[in-house]
Design brief:
The structure holds 2 protein chains of 2 kinds. Chain A has 3 helices and 9 strands; from the N terminus they run βαβββαβαββββ. Chain A is of the alpha/beta class. Chain A is globular and about 35 Å long. The two termini of chain A are about 15 Å apart. By secondary structure, chain B is mostly beta strands. Chain B has a single domain, classed as Roll (Ubiquitin-like (UB roll)), CATH 3.10.20. Helices cover about 10% and strands about 45% of the residues of chain B. Chain B is built from 1 helix and 8 strands. In chain B, strand 4 and strand 5 form a beta hairpin. The longest helix of chain B is centred in the first third of the chain and has 7 residues. The termini of chain B are far apart. The chains are: A alpha/beta, B mainly beta.
């Protein structure tokens, strides 16, 4: 389970809505107890059905949160018209076992968001574990 | 030698080591999916074998992030 501040949820949904029909993406930074900050990242694909982070921006984000004592713990992206589930492309490209992957779906109102961990213990084997989200004020 | 990796000072055997070998030591299973920065410069993946890091260098690496619906 992860605890996410309500303001973080509001920020990631607002970001997703602001870019429709393009997919949004970002990081959530936090401490050992809760997720405290949404960090907007540029979708360099600028696409309605794909996203990629800019590596230069990624390095900047990592260093930025390191200086505050937080860590980047969640990778967020939106699905403007599809459900909040991992797509085949997501599973293929999600390779960091340390990260939680959160998808915001704008297919329905209010938006639905789900999160997962993706483990690939050996080639051809994928272990997807849902992560419960607790929103805190 | 002492290299700073992702903000942490780390002792690594030897005088120099390639970025590819450093990723192996760090148990990075899919180096093709990793971006590496050495002393503030982002490397091309084709440079991982030829780029050597040594004492005092600062190395950052992270996974490429992308996906699609």
């Amino acid at each position: 389970m992860i605890r996410i501040l309500r303001s973080v949820v509001d920020d990631m949904i607002a970001h997703a809505r602001s870019l429709v029909p393009v997919e949004s993406c970002g990081y959530i930074a936090g401490t050992s107890t809760q997720m405290t900050r949404y960090i907007v990242m540029t979708n360099v694909d600028n696409s309605p059905d794909h996203f990629s982070f800019d590596p230069k921006e990624q390095f900047q984000a990592v260093k930025s949160v390191r200086s505050t004592g937080e860590t980047l713990q969640v990778v967020v992206h939106s699905h403007p018209v599809t459900p909040a589930r991992l797509s085949a492309e997501d599973i293929r490209l999600f390779n960091d076992p340390q990260m939680i992957y959160l998808i915001v779906s704008l297919k329905e109102e209010p938006p639905i968001y789900n999160s997962f961990r993706v483990f690939k213990p050996e080639p051809g084997i994928v272990d997807i574990q849902p992560v419960v989200i607790q929103v805190v004020e | 030698m002492e290299i700073t990796i992702n903000g942490d000072k780390t002792t690594v055997d030897g005088v120099n080591i390639s970025v590819s070998d450093l990723l192996k030591i760090r148990n990075v299973d899919m180096p093709d999916m990793v971006s590496v920065e050495v002393n503030g410069t982002i490397l091309e993946r084709s440079e991982f074998d030829s780029t050597q890091v040594g004492d005092g260098d600062q190395v950052e690496f992270l996974y490429f992030m992308g996906g699609g619906r």
